[in-house]
Amino acid sequence: xxxxxxxxxxxxxxxxxxxxxxxxxxxxxxxxxxxxxxxxxxxxxxxxxxxxxxxxxxxxxxxxxxxxxxxxxxxxxxxxxxxxxxxxxxxxxxxxxxxxxxxxxxxxxxxxxxxxxxxxxxxxxxxxxxxxxxxxxxxxxxxxxxxxxxxxxxxxxxxxxxxxxxxxxxxxxxxxxxxxxxxxxxxxxxxxxxxxxxxxxxxxxxxxxxxxxxxxxxxxxxxxxxxxxxxxxxxxxxxxxxxxxxxxxxxxxxxxxxxxxxxxxxxxxxxxxxxxxxxxxxxxxxxxxxxxxxxxxxxxxxxxxxxxxxxxxxxxxxxxxxxxxxxxxxxxxxxxxxxxxxxxxxxxxxxxxxxxxxxxxxxxxxxxxxxxxxxxxxxxxxxxxxxxxxxxxxxxxxxxxxxxxxxxxxxxxxxxxxxxxxxxx
Length: 425
Ligand code: KIV
Ligand code: ZN
Prior knowledge:
CATH architecture of the largest domain: Alpha-Beta Barrel
Distance between the termini: 14 Å
Largest sheet: 8 strands, parallel, barrel
CATH topology of the largest domain: TIM Barrel
Shape: elongated
Order of helices and strands: HHEEHEHEHEHHEHEHEHEHEHEHEHHH
Strand content: 5-15%
Number of helices: 16
Bound molecules: 3-methyl-2-oxobutanoic acid, zinc ion
Radius of gyration: 27 Å
């Protein structure tokens, strides 16, 4: 019977058990900030262009400027602010963002069309560091069906658009749309020609998200080895997520010589989305052996993820890597016990490092006593082993009746237990 149990004081050290354990056994693999010894990967954020192509996510001007300011603070190197010729709203947004942002390069998209390039240049006229992003489809399927053209004509148009953009800005990025499905030999010819025409960055988009990581990596390697003037430009990875491979493909690209990644906050974008910024940045941070890093201030990742999600009305899936609501939540008893003893048992990222609220122990019917005690202690209740046994039985009854046991349920449990003790006394 419950009434035979008495409360006993729990020593303070038990509260600190987890922390002490950590101090005794520091974990070497979480070492961070290797940028000085690493090569820099440029982060090109296209949340406001490819990301805004997500159905239902239209932003107004103030919202776009607000996001651009946060991207700058985050440490993004290049902000693709829009596609100026596509609408007066996009034109104005690129112009206003160019005025508002001081350090990041501002980029405007255009097709390989003179008017597009002129309008992009016009929209970028206040940018401290303007970049025109121009290009054309290079896969046979794009050339034959979309552009109704030939490989030779497309090569000429590619060179022509870069030369024309160079009349307005120094920094010109060329994209070979559907490069993922473009024949490597032909792609190499196009890339060599556009670099000769002045392209500073060459973007190799996997527009349809078709490639496998080794295929995409091999494509970048092929360009590194077969384009004689490749050292005069930066290769950029731009991956879509149709097969859920965008992050893996982008990492494969940088392992094979690409030095810029095009990505979006929360991975938003056309269809299944683009490479997610927070994922590629944290892959590099968590794997210092890659010797590749970015200038991103990772502590701002969760706040900006929430902001973009709210403004674009695009909820983040709870199990999303790095920024999802469950990214640091532990539900099973075995995991909870491990994490309470040593966080690194089940977490490779320190939640503080990405601006997340912290490790979360979710109390369910699968939780064990260690998790219950841990949470009760955080709420100010201490129980000895015997008391805990009793309260745990009661906890399981509550847990079986609902998905998650919340703090208010625990306060009720504590009250219930107090009542039992009083009756016994
Ligand atoms: O996916 C793609 O190919 C693009 C280009 C316009 C850069 O977004
Ligand atoms: Zn794209």
